Structures are given as structure tokens and as C-alpha cells.
Structure prediction request, 822 residues.
Amino acid sequence: MTLSPLAPKNISDTPSIEGVRFATGMAGIKYRDRTDVMLALFDKGTKVAGVFTRSKCPSAPVDWCRTQLKRGKARALVVNSGNANAFTGRTGTDAVRRVAAQAAQAAGISAPEIFLASTGVIGEPLDAAKFSGLFEKLVAQAAPNGLLAAAKAIMTTDTYPKVASAKARLGEAEISIAGMAKGAGMIAPDMATMLAFVFTDAPIEALPLQHMLKRGVESSFNAITVDGDTSTSDTLLLFATGAATAHGAPKITAPGDRRLKAFRTALDEVLRDLAFQVVKDGEGARKFVSITVEGATSKISAKKIARSIANSPLVKTAIAGEDANWGRIVMAVGKAGEPADRDRLAIWFGDIRVAHKGARDPSYDEEKVAAVMREPEITIRVDLGLGKGAATVFTCDLTKEYVAINGDYRS
Amino acid sequence: MTLSPLAPKNISDTPSIEGVRFATGMAGIKYRDRTDVMLALFDKGTKVAGVFTRSKCPSAPVDWCRTQLKRGKARALVVNSGNANAFTGRTGTDAVRRVAAQAAQAAGISAPEIFLASTGVIGEPLDAAKFSGLFEKLVAQAAPNGLLAAAKAIMTTDTYPKVASAKARLGEAEISIAGMAKGAGMIAPDMATMLAFVFTDAPIEALPLQHMLKRGVESSFNAITVDGDTSTSDTLLLFATGAATAHGAPKITAPGDRRLKAFRTALDEVLRDLAFQVVKDGEGARKFVSITVEGATSKISAKKIARSIANSPLVKTAIAGEDANWGRIVMAVGKAGEPADRDRLAIWFGDIRVAHKGARDPSYDEEKVAAVMREPEITIRVDLGLGKGAATVFTCDLTKEYVAINGDYRS
Prediction:
């Protein structure tokens, strides 16, 4: 697997987060000679928030996490790659229970405080026996640094590990946020999983955490698409250890607390950074594309139209071919089923307006547009001229490599 | 452009339809050394029904046809390839009027009785002057045979012309139906047009025609998808000359007339034949795939789920790779947003059940499934186990050729 041309230039470990320790190991679930399990251990008092796939066929670990999340408390996170434990029936539910039980015993904690995620092939039973004896070693090894190594252990068709971090003030204290993600998400083929985990030492209760996560996800993970295929396993968890209380960080219990402003900005930044990295590692991706729709009748309508453009195979193949094919943008606006008026539409590639009032902009210079299309990052803007609704969606192009990667046989 | 491997073995002209005459010519709109305009002339008293794209950005000819259709009468049909006259603003509306006026004058009929369609690139102004003097020649040449030649004149990225015909009894008389279609429809890139025209000598009024067309389209053109991209120009018109009254066919005025049963069956057959030919000529298509969803809570729900499967890039690339990747079917069911219960799902490729009660069917033979996947025509069946709603959608695979064809520059 060659490195995505959109990969960050430097990939280095993030600063450690007080109250979190990481370890990785080899369970030999599918891959050979590489790590495929990561364990994160959290200090007592760690709070957790999470958002999950909207699929009606969620994986067994997603079911498990949804149940445990109600208590808002976490002591550990276990993630494996090589098998998604999705559509595995009762066997899958049993496997989740057995893995949690093994980890709980090794770490001396209770199973319901362990969060689980799996990524890999759908429909293959996950053999819990593969983890036998592994958690004892991982618990012994667990150390504050190691988020980058953990991000590597959960990779599937990813071409690089995805980590991000930020610092912010909370009251008078400086707090840290760090996170990781995997997998080109909805595009990941058999892997069918977008996973992201974010950690902070800020002392924030589960309720405000959940509020911020739900809000933050709208302009990050819920604003990206690679192929419109929503996975059975999408999981985003945010853990807050509260260790920063020792440095004077105030304990936050209410969602509306104004002291959260800087934290929220930093969290949004980390979520967006990770989400963009997922798009940039989309299978076969050569272009990173931002699609902004303005002038819609509502924000929701704008997002639907932006998604219709971002998921159109004709738009995506045109971008792969470096073709400023705005006719296909018109097509995708038209098919979205949302209010639109052909005769008010305006379309830009980069800063160049190519269409205006329902027809080609007579003044546009094809050469300048061609130069925009040759860039690795492209912005497309559509003004519907109807209202004030606006939204941006991020995607990548659709290349022959995508077809090659996903047309290969499972085994 | 190499012939689609799914093309019919024999392509021959259809029997002529009394009351319809065809002619084709070269306007040089975009292509050189090939016909790009077709004219059909209808005898006085011809009735017409039509269905059009649901796009919010319809082409100028679609706007025109919608307006003229209200009267239900037709004397001519003019179709050009090489330019879709879509998103061309006031220029486009003017071009439609001018082309209709030229044809009307040449044929000695009134412009509002002429139906127009255009297929080709979006956003380029259509130069009505290209048709200058052409219609006089076409009117002089028009002859009863020539539907196949007409089907060739409206091709764009099609690799073969698509015609179909059937006969049926109406009262004591035998009536004929013949039709043509072009363009792999919603997948057609810059061409962005699925056009189909059906002709009959049956004496049926516009109202019952419209009823039958709307019903027939649900299991034919509205049940196919190549890439989920709805065109700005989709047009399906049904013309009934009524010439069969001379052979004793009864005049039909009411939609519920029981004598229409055989006609309706024959019409549905022609619509389905043409629709399937469009899928089989989908860009880069190597496999024709029927996807049936049963056990849904309603027919509409079943169709939504079938479409979600049929439009999933991951499902389509797996089929291109001859991979019975049922995990991706689960994913596509899950993301459809319709009622589904993971633990009741069953999935078949051909006759082989691969998944059952929310998990892999332990008895399935991978070798036998692999043999099914190597066939050029593949059926996929999903039983949701919830209700009685069922629907079938027809699609093709997603190959590297699709990306190549659509990633090439417009010019």
C-alpha cells in the first residue's frame, strides 16, 4: 500500500495525556507481523462521551458501547483490527463479552467500564480466544506515551496513522487533548469502519462532554464522505480523565458552562484534523475537495445538496480527471431533491466563477480553472440564491485505484 | 468505444408503426460523420403521454415538453445528440423555440405539437442555426421504417442502439408497440441524459396513456440505476397514432378500460426491455445485476433499500471483482435508513443463501457462490423478515472503465 499523496509531511507522536496509558500487541487476528490490538487504560473517575453509526445493522461492539455509555464512566478502551465483529449474530455478542471479561480481569476493573471497537472484515466470527493471555502483558506494558503506536495498531487499508492534538485553557489551567482515527471511514471496504478516539485530562462530566462531541462532530466527522457508504461500526469516543484538576482546572458539570469555550474550540480543531486525515487517506484518493453550498433555504438543505455533490460518482471522477465539469455539479444539485432554482445557480471552482444565473459564466477563463483543478486541494462553492442556509462537506476524488482496491477478492 | 459485453446478440429494426414516419440527418452539432438529429412525424390525431426527470435543474427541452404535454397531442418528435441544451439559461429556451419553429414550418404543423429532446454536454449553448434547412430534407425523406436508424442518431456514449417492440390484441385488432432508448441514462456523464421514445398504432387517449406510462415506468426505467446520478434531461414519451382503428381496434378513452390488459402487458415488456438495455450499456458495465428486497415494511421501503444496495460503490466494485461480499450488502441495508433488523436478515447470491438470521450461513459453499459471481447476470436477494414489502432494482457493476470514461476531459 503506497502512502497517500495527501498524507501529512510529518507524523509524530502527540504529547501524553495525564490519566491515560497505552499498550499495543499482536493477537494475530488476521494480519501477520504487525500489531492488531490496542489497550488504553484510564485513571479512576474518567468520563466518556460517544457517537456511533446510524446504521440499522450496527456491529456487536457498537451495541456494547451504546449500553455502557449510559453510565458515562470508562476505565479502558480495547480496539482490534482485522475483524469488525459485525453481522456475527449471537457469536459476536458473546465475543464482545468474552474480550471485555478478559481485559477486565487483567486490569482489575469491571467489564462494563471497558469500551470496545473492532475494525476489519464483516461477517467473520471474532475468536475471543486469540486475546488469551494478551491483556496481562498489555496492562504490564501500558505507558503514557504511545498514542501513535496505538493508531498504527488499528489501521486496516489506511496508508498512514492518524493522530492530532491541541492544548487549551480551562479556568487557569492548561489542558491537553489528543486523538486518533482510522480508516477512510465509510469507504473502507471489508473493513467498513471509521473509528476515532479522543482523550483529554480536562475534568469534564459526561453530559457536557456528550454535548460538545455531538456538536463538534457535525462539522468534522459528519461532514466528510468518501463514497457515501456508512459503516456498521463507526465509533467516536471522547474520554476525559480529569487529571488536570491537580493543576487547578475547574470541574465542569454543565453543558452550558462558559469556561468551556477554549476547550470546545480545541476539541473541534482535533476532530476536524482527524476527520480531514481520514478523507485524505480515502482509498485511491488523490484530491481533497471542500464543497460549500450557500444560499440554501436551510442549513440542513445546504448539507443535503453538498452531500449530493460530494457523493456523485460523476463529480468525483471528473475531479480525478482534473476536469472542472460544472455541468455535473448542476446535475448533483438537481437530483438532491432540495429546493433549488436553476436560473439562480452560481458555481465557483476555487475563486473562479464558472456558472452564473443558470448558465455558463461568459467571462470565465478555462485555463485558470484548469490550473485550479491541478492542485491537490480543491474548493467548490455553489450559491443557490434562495436563502441563508450554508454547509460544507469534505470529500476526495474517485479514482481507478478505488475500484482496484475494492474489487479485489476478500481473502 | 468497444461494444458492451452485455449487448444483445442481434440488433435489428423493429416492425413499422402505422402513423409514424422517421428520418435522420447530420446537423454537425458536435460529432462529425454521423447522424445527430432524428425526426419522427405523426399522423393527425396522435396522442402523447410522458414522464420526465425529477431534477430541480431540468433542461430547456424538458421544460418545453412538460408545457406541450398538457394538451396530450403530438405531430412530431425532434431529438438531437451532442448537446443537452441543459443549464443554458434564456439562450436554451430560445433555442428550443427556434428549433420547434423550424420543424413546424418544414412539416406544416404547429410548433406546440412538436416534442423536443436533446442529449449531450450540459451548459453549452445549442446553436439553432445548425438545423437550418435540415428539417425540409428530413420531412421529404421521412418513411415508416427507420426506428433503428433513429436510435443510432441519438446515441452518445452508448455502445449500441437500443430498440424493442411487441404486439398485443386490443379488442379484435392486433396493435403494435415499438420504442427506442439511449444512453445508460443517469450514468451518462456530460451527456447526462436518458431518453426513451415509444410508439404505437393503438387508438388510446392521452389520459389512459399517461396512466399506463406512469405505472409501467415504476418497474422499468424507475427501477434501474447505474450510478445514482439523475440526469437533467431524462425524458420518456409514448405516442399513440390511433392508426389501428382502421383494423377495428376500439378507441380507448378511460384509464380503467379492461380491454387495455394485453396492451399494458406488451407496453410494460417494451419499457422493461429498453430499460434493461440501458443498464447493460452502462459505462464500463460488465455485469447486469438484479437486486430484490423482500420482507420490508412496505414496497417503498423495499425499493429504497434495493436502491441503497444498487448505488453502493462498495457493492458495485465487489461485483466487478466477482466477490460475493455480502458484508457490503449488510452495510448498504444498514445505511438505507429504513426499518431493518440485523438479526432477521437473510441474503442470497443466485440460489445460494450466504447469510441467515443476522450471521453468515454456516452451510454455504464458497466455491458455488464464486461460480454465481462469474456469470454475466447476477441476482441478489435480501429478505428483511419484517413484512410483505418487496421491490427489485436493476444495476450494473462499477469498473475501472467507468472511472476512465468519466475522468477524461470534456473536450
Q: What stands out?
A: Residues 185-192 of chain B have pLDDT under 50 and may be disordered. The domain at 288-407 of chain B is CATH 3.10.20.340 (Ubiquitin-like (UB roll)).
